[in-house]
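User: Could you go from structure to sequence for me? I need the amino acid at each position, not a summary. Structure tokens:
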């Protein structure tokens, strides 16, 4: 136990020194209905038996971690989103809205968390490792990512991993109280989605909402590498959004 606590303390200190304030999880709005009306985010294994209510995105699970939930550090993985939108089925295209959940960074140093300095599916999950050094390895001066491409840190904020697709895998479950900020792409989507949540009797007063268009566009990558952080605007639902 002492060893686990020491590692957690090291990861926490490193994350705080880098200014990490959150993790991010992208999900289709149709899945948010399930997440927000239940008890939070669950891994594929935890969701067994509830498949009809949840639209699993990564059917192949090349990362070999079906008992974990994939997250990114500080900002969403827009390349993952682009791939998912491109691969969407006709049924999925009927419900095109995606949201980003902001997650308490304490899950970085929770038991069972693993880190990959690049996309976790690379090498069949072979890059995933637990521990303080594995977390630090997400921040090299130069990283080799997908298709053999090399990435430098450029002017990236210190909280952001070097490779845009670096992943954090959280074991089993993230309680809703730790993922209660929802980011939308624009005000119209926010009003539309909150209206749907209210119709389904989801207590929207338990959530905070942000509008951040760049969270859902590949331009985010260039912005961060240039040292520019995206605008995040708090949004409060109006009565007519009911």
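Assistant: Here is the amino acid at each position, in order:
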């Amino acid at each position: 136990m002492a060893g686990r606590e020491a590692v957690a303390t090291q990861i926490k200190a490193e994350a705080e020194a880098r200014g990490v304030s959150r993790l991010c999880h992208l999900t289709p709005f149709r899945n948010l209905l399930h997440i927000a009306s239940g008890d939070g985010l669950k891994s594929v294994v935890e969701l067994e038996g509830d498949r009809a209510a949840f639209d699993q995105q990564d059917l192949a699970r090349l990362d070999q971690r079906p008992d974990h939930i994939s997250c990114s550090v500080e900002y969403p993985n827009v390349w993952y989103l682009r791939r998912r939108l491109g691969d969407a089925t006709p049924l999925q295209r009927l419900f095109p809205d995606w949201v980003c959940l902001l997650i308490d960074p304490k899950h970085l140093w929770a038991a069972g968390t693993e880190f990959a300095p690049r996309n976790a599916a690379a090498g069949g999950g072979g890059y995933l490792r637990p521990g303080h050094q594995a977390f630090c390895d997400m921040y090299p001066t130069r990283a080799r990512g997908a298709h053999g491409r090399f990435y430098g840190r450029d002017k990236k904020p210190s909280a952001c991993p070097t490779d845009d697709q670096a992943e954090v895998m959280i074991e089993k479950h993230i309680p809703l109280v730790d993922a209660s900020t929802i980011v939308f792409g624009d005000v119209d989507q926010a009003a539309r989605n909150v209206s749907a949540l209210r119709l389904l009797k989801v207590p929207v007063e338990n959530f905070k909402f942000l509008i951040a268009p760049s969270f859902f566009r590949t331009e985010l990558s260039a912005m961060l590498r240039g040292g520019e952080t995206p605008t995040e605007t708090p949004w409060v639902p109006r009565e007519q959004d009911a």
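One structural detail worth keeping in mind: The two ends are 48 Å apart (CA to CA).
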